[in-house]
Design brief:
The complex is a heterodimer of chains A (about 290) and B (about 400). Chain A is of the alpha/beta class and about 290 residues long. Helices cover about 35% and strands about 20% of the residues of chain A. Chain A is built from nine helices and 14 strands. The longest helix of chain A is centred in the N-terminal third of the chain and has 13 residues, at about 75-85. Chain A is globular and about 55 Å long. Chain B has about 400 residues and is an alpha+beta fold. In chain B, a hairpin with a 4-residue loop joins β7 (about 105-115) and β8 (about 120-125). The chains are: A alpha/beta (about 290), B alpha+beta (about 400). At the A-B interface, α4 and α5 of A face α4, α9 and α13 of B.
Chain lengths: ~290, ~400
């Protein structure tokens, strides 16, 4: 999708020379992502994967014109890395780390106010635009170019949905993980808007889970503003209340947080809803045919 | 992470929030001694377990003499308290908090949450103290007052005054209310809490505000930088299987069904539970092996799932991204061999190195039930469980 990651995007990785960033930068380059360098404090001036390494994001942006950053810093250092990227004017910031303290994200979101930066994540598999590139940790071989936009909180459930869609011959325009944390940079509604404006997307699949008001807020936004078909699934029908189901944000704190309440609300707001996770692909197909 | 009421009150005291005089004790004799030391003519004895609803369950009682305090403490300590949050099996009470009983004139609610919509810490208050805030939010939402806090400047005095006036804390109570709210906020911020509440915050004799009960939950992801909070963790209050799982880097939550689940990713783990439920089965647990699962990690997952005696079969659902199906398969075989597993195992593998993973499973002599997709896996799991249930019902003896 053109807004977040397109063929003109210049990508850097923060924590570039680390094991994970190295592996996923190589994977990204294999599928054609325009990676232009990376940042590792203390290693500025060296080369890694045949690309320049910088000490600061500011230097990297000045030298390469980078506008997208994949942050692979570990959770205790991630907030600082995100704010450094915001300060340097990076437009799309993808944060992979799972386990950033939530009050760190509260401060990061405050710092971001008034800037043009978009934070994808944290605790996300990232963004992939099949045929163009990716910034993230998803297995790119399961995705194929197509006209369905996907936005999800979970990573593996995103893969599950893609597999079901592939079985029916449906590809993706872009797939965006907004992450499983309670405070994240980008909510569903923001991504829905980007897909609604994207000429390469015909319909959007939104994969949510228990906890928080985001899915219903997005459904409300879509009812007013969206013309493309919107399909929704919410994981955690059988989750007990008060327990954090793996993701820090997946917790039922009130009745509105349950999967059933969210799905019912989404249906009432006119969305195509999926009640059984096995029916995700079939429901997407039904929605685009309608 | 949750902590006990007495620990929360100790913390809050350091931040200038007034709490009743009292101490935690482990025996009835200590309870009597503490009651004498703190003085007064009435005392409250409070069971210390990580659960709401202790009062209704008989875990909070008033003693009108030192002897009564001793008797009540004797009855509560060592008993199993059953609340709406503990399940039918209840929770063993190991200690009680003995406090001076207060003469309560009015009760309020004051709390702080991290509001997901505004992405900020939000002060929440209500004149309906002593009632769970969720109940107030549902029945009389207009009685809940909210004030969003800007993290750049923190909770400001005027915001506290606004909230205090709206809930009716005026006159001599106003400066006290401001102090309580700011203390609660600083306590939450400085210790990386994700929730803090005083319920009830009470007006007692002589127009004094006092935090009669308090609860805080801390961010597991920030414990690395909060050593004093980490020390407050009480493993007796947690499921030993869940504690062991965390030690192995696994995310496990016990449920009450019979289909053991081993899945990668929190979302897919929930969806797998949902698929089982929709097929008419009942998941025994939530388990996320996470990314980059080694064979050892998979084997540990089996060990934890099998500690639950209710588990009749295991369903493995892996969609490998950064995981590798061959490693997962190796771990499954390791577990089957080392743990001598005889129950049916349903395996669904997809994603990275799926062919290699399937080949490893096929090359072994274990009778795995291979599923091709999520629906297939859930359907096969439920069929197997039903078969076991039928076999368990002894067939009628035929007359010879």
């Amino acid at each position: 999708m053109s807004v977040l990651l397109n063929k003109d995007s210049h990508v850097i990785f923060q924590g570039f020379t680390g094991q994970h960033a190295t592996f996923h930068a190589e994977e990204a380059m294999k599928i054609g992502t325009k990676v232009v360098g990376g940042v590792t404090p203390g290693k500025g001036g060296t080369q890694h994967l045949g690309l320049p390494v910088f000490d600061t994001v500011e230097e990297a942006v000045q030298a390469t014109g980078a506008d997208v950053s994949g942050i692979f810093a570990p959770p205790p250092f991630a907030a600082d890395a995100i704010m450094e990227a915001i300060d340097a004017g990076i437009k799309t910031i993808v944060v992979i780390a799972d386990g950033i303290p939530v009050q760190d994200m509260v401060r990061v979101e405050r710092y971001r106010l008034g800037t043009n930066s978009i934070i994808i994540g944290p605790n996300t598999p990232g963004i992939i635009t099949p045929g163009v590139g990716k910034v993230g940790i998803m297995p790119s071989h399961i995705y194929s170019p197509g006209r369905i936009g996907i936005v999800s909180r979970s990573g593996t459930l995103n893969y599950e949905a893609v597999a079901q869609m592939s079985d029916l011959g449906l590809g993706q325009s872009s797939s965006i993980g907004i992450g499983g944390d309670p405070v994240n940079g980008t909510d569903f509604a923001t991504v829905l808007k980007a897909f609604e404006d994207d000429p390469e997307t015909d319909a959007v699949l939104m994969i949510g889970e228990i906890g928080g008001p985001q899915e219903v807020d997005a459904a409300r936004w879509a009812k007013k503003n969206m013309r493309k078909p919107l399909i929704g699934y919410v994981a955690g029908l059988s989750a007990p209340p008060g327990r954090r189901m793996g993701h820090a944000g997946a917790i039922i704190s009130s009745e509105a947080d349950t999967a059933t309440a969210k799905i019912d609300m989404m249906e009432a707001l006119g969305m195509f809803v999926v009640r059984n996770p096995a029916d995700i692909g079939a429901t997407v197909l039904r929605a685009i045919k309608s | 992470m949750n902590i006990h009421e007495y620990q929360t009150k100790d913390l809050l005291k350091h931040y200038g929030v007034p709490v009743p005089p009292g101490r935690v004790v482990h025996t009835d004799a200590q309870a009597a001694t503490v009651a004498e030391e703190i003085g007064g003519s009435r005392w409250v004895v409070k069971a210390q377990i990580h659960s709401g609803g202790r009062g209704k369950a008989g875990g909070v009682r008033i003693g009108n003499s030192i002897d009564e305090v001793r008797v009540i403490a004797n009855e509560i300590i060592g008993s199993l308290l059953v609340t709406h949050q503990t399940g039918a099996e209840g929770r063993l009470v190991r200690r009680v908090l003995v406090e001076q009983a207060s003469n309560i004139m009015r009760e309020y609610y004051v709390g702080l949450i991290i509001d997901r919509a505004t992405r900020r810490i939000t002060l929440v208050a209500s004149a309906e103290g002593g009632v769970e805030i969720e109940v107030v939010a549902k029945q009389t939402p207009e009685r809940i007052i909210r004030e969003v806090i800007d993290p750049a400047v923190g909770l400001l005095d005027f915001q506290c005054r606004k909230v205090a006036y709206k809930v009716g804390l005026k006159g001599a109570l106003l400066p006290q209310a401001v102090k309580v709210m700011k203390g609660l906020y600083r306590c939450m911020r400085d210790n990386d809490a994700i929730m803090a509440e005083i319920n009830p915050l009470a007006i007692v004799d002589n127009d004094q505000l006092l935090a009669l009960d308090a609860k805080m939950t801390f961010d597991d992801n920030a414990l690395y930088r909060r050593p004093t909070i980490t020390e407050l963790r009480d493993f007796d209050e947690e499921d030993p299987k869940e504690v062991e799982a965390t030690g192995h880097g696994l995310n496990y939550i016990a449920l009450d069904g019979d289909v053991g689940c081993i899945v990668n990713g929190a979302g897919l783990a929930m969806a797998t539970m949902d698929a089982i439920t929709l097929q008419g089965g009942k998941p025994a647990n939530f388990l996320d092996v996470g990314g980059g699962a080694t064979p050892e990690k998979v084997a540990n997952a089996f060990r934890i799932v099998l500690q639950d005696p209710a588990v009749k079969i295991i369903l493995i659902n892996i969609f490998a991204g950064i995981n590798r199906c061959d490693w997962i398969a190796t771990g499954i075989i390791q577990a089957m061999r080392d743990q001598n597993i005889k129950m049916p195992i349903i395996v669904r593998l997809a994603g990275t190195n799926v062919e290699e993973g399937r080949a490893i499973l096929n090359a072994s002599n274990f009778p795995f039930i291979i599923a091709s997709n999520l629906t297939d896996a859930a359907a096969k799991a439920v069929t197997e469980v039903n078969n076991i249930a039928q076999k368990a019902t002894p067939p009628k003896k035929e007359h010879s």
